[in-house]
Write a structure and sequence with these properties.
567 residues, alpha/beta, globular
Length: 567
């Protein structure tokens, strides 16, 4: 609701009492700050503070900003902007034991694109705001990123045409594992791509958090490869290629890892199964010993700490694959993913426990742990396809994993559930994960546009409005803090400094603050890439423009200087 009158059930003069009431938020002016403009606009401030059923959007845009424009004040004036920032909203969690209330402050945001207008809107509290960047493509190399050294890492490597009867369309790290010199290739690649100057550049541009994607093989060394579905193996073997496994009974056949199926005369026989899928995981796990990965991960934390950055550890590649994508470490064929098998989820819990140990070792430099990257099923419950992961099964896995993590990490260290926007309403309907039982649980999401190129600024922004609305509702109506751990500037041109005239600076300024309105911040994908729009932090330019991250994070009121933007 956004009404201007006190509601009966929000009539409280105490913040603690207010925040236990469903739908009620606490609005306040910062204490101890001299603000003549605040006094001029609102007098004693009683009419605009206290316990209300307002939304943050209504408070900042419809109350505070309205006073700015009604008074004919200049929204770009520093004194006006500081006055607007004196007004805050606090949202409760419904739990007396949970000390982490959600807080937002009002801000005056000014567009970097025409017509260069300014408006009042909420922004994540400065003490909690995530200004993040992904350091992807290192421990889980992704060929499409075309980062430095990928050509040497994948030189002469090929993926099988198919696995388990499904086509393999992309090379992935497990294919490198079959090379005789795989260890040297990967060690050289990490040495080349984990560098201290990267973190200095992030800090210089105003970032405060780094998301580090990891694969399970970076943190644990299983005695065997992940489990592969027997049905998938057995059904995929062309009859002409089946080798007789001996005339034995069904139980003995399956115990030997073979497939019990009918032959051409409809008689049951035992056949050898295709072990290629499992062998590729074994190759992946054997590329480097854990101590080498551990030293490189420790370098990331050391470089981040020296630059004043925090690190979010992300399980990017889970045992068996949580989706059919090369970023899991091994593309096992279109539609093939085996994470949901019990042995693989057990390995994933083991990996997350190891990540918790790394996090604990690095103290405050570790922001927390993201449990699983992009589980298959981006379109949500109404458009589930065969092979999409059951969210009921995932919820059970998350509960188990979090309890294991809490044996290592304190209750206040964030554990993050990543979910696609289309699934967030489903999570809103589930029984909440309480602070008392699970500690501080946050949610993250990913926002991407993957359609045909859109070069018009307004149209590019409109592509994300539906997802932004979902994020806003989730943040407003659940106890969970929410941020976006991946978004990109791609999809709007070639990225070439020669002919791509899209206003990337204006788009980034809009995107960062659109996400701040609906959560606690965001993390751009990625730090670097061969295609500049996928690596807009390391890139000197994206298209013809310099993306001015520092001015964006500081919510600069001045219009962009053409000489700086097009330098």
């Amino acid at each position: 609701a956004s009404g201007s009158a006190w509601r009966q059930d929000c009539s409280s003069h105490l913040i603690d009492d207010c925040l236990t009431k469903p739908g009620c938020h606490w609005f306040q002016r910062k204490a101890g700050v001299d603000c003549p403009l605040c006094d001029r606009w609102f007098g004693d401030n009683v009419a605009v503070t206290g316990c209300r059923d307002w939304s943050a959007e209504h408070f900042c845009g419809g109350v505070v900003a309205k006073a700015v424009f009604d008074s004919k004040a200049n929204p770009r004036d520093d004194a006006v902007r500081r006055a607007v920032e004196q007004y805050e909203m606090v949202q409760g969690t419904g739990e007396a034991e949970n000390p982490f209330r959600k807080r937002m402050a009002c801000s005056m945001w000014c567009d970097f694109s025409e017509p260069y207008s300014c408006k009042g809107q909420p922004r994540a509290d400065a003490r909690a705001e995530l200004r993040g960047v992904n350091y992807g493509g290192r421990f889980v190399p992704e060929p499409y990123l075309s980062t430095e050294g990928l050509d040497r890492l994948f030189a002469g490597v090929s993926a099988p045409q198919g696995v388990l009867g499904r086509p393999v369309r992309h090379k992935s790290l497990c294919d490198v594992g079959a090379a005789d010199d795989a260890a040297k290739r990967m060690a050289d690649f990490l040495d080349l791509n984990v560098r201290e100057e990267h973190f200095a550049r992030m800090a210089e541009q105003g970032f405060n958090t780094v998301r580090l994607p990891l694969g399970y093989w970076n943190v644990i060394d299983p005695a065997h490869g992940p489990a592969i579905s027997r049905a998938a193996m057995c059904d995929s073997i062309p009859f002409a290629k089946r080798n007789d496994c001996g005339s034995i009974d069904e139980a003995t056949c399956e115990a030997k890892g073979c497939c019990w199926q009918m032959d051409e005369w409809r008689k049951p026989r035992c056949f050898f199964s295709d072990s290629a899928a499992n062998q590729r995981y074994v190759d992946l796990q054997g590329i480097l010993p854990l101590d080498v990965y551990s030293r490189q991960i420790d370098k990331v934390f050391r470089f981040a700490a020296n630059a004043g950055l925090r690190v979010l550890l992300d399980l990017h590649g889970a045992p068996g694959g949580q989706t059919d994508n090369a970023f899991t470490g091994c593309h096992q064929g279109e539609g093939n993913l085996f994470f949901d098998l019990a042995p693989n989820k057990e390995l994933a819990v083991e990996a997350l426990s190891a990540m918790a140990g790394i996090c604990a070792r690095h103290g405050d430099t570790c922001f927390g742990i993201e449990l699983l990257n992009e589980p298959r099923g981006a379109l949500g419950p109404e458009l589930m396809a065969d092979g999409d992961l059951s969210r009921t099964s995932l919820l059970a896995f998350y509960k188990t994993a979090i309890k294991e993590i809490r044996n290592i990490l304190p209750w206040d260290k964030p554990v993050v559930i990543m979910e696609w926007p289309a699934w967030l309403p489903w999570w809103q309907m589930q029984e909440p994960l309480t602070f008392k039982e699970y500690g501080r649980v946050m949610f993250s999401s990913h926002l991407y546009y993957t359609g045909p190129s859109v070069a018009d600024q307004a149209a590019a922004r409109a592509k994300h409005e539906k997802d932004l609305k979902i994020l806003g509702d989730f943040y407003a109506f659940t106890r969970y803090a929410l941020f976006v751990s991946e978004y990109a500037l791609s999809g709007h041109g070639s990225g070439s400094p020669v002919d791509d005239m899209f206003d990337y600076n204006g788009f980034a300024n809009w995107f960062v603050h659109a996400l701040n309105r609906h959560g606690t911040g965001s993390m751009v994908w990625n730090f670097d890439a061969g295609f500049c729009a996928w690596g807009p932090v390391a890139a000197r330019k994206v298209g013809t423009q310099v993306v001015q991250w520092s001015r964006i994070f500081n919510a600069s009121a001045s219009r962009p200087d053409r000489q700086e933007v097009y330098a």
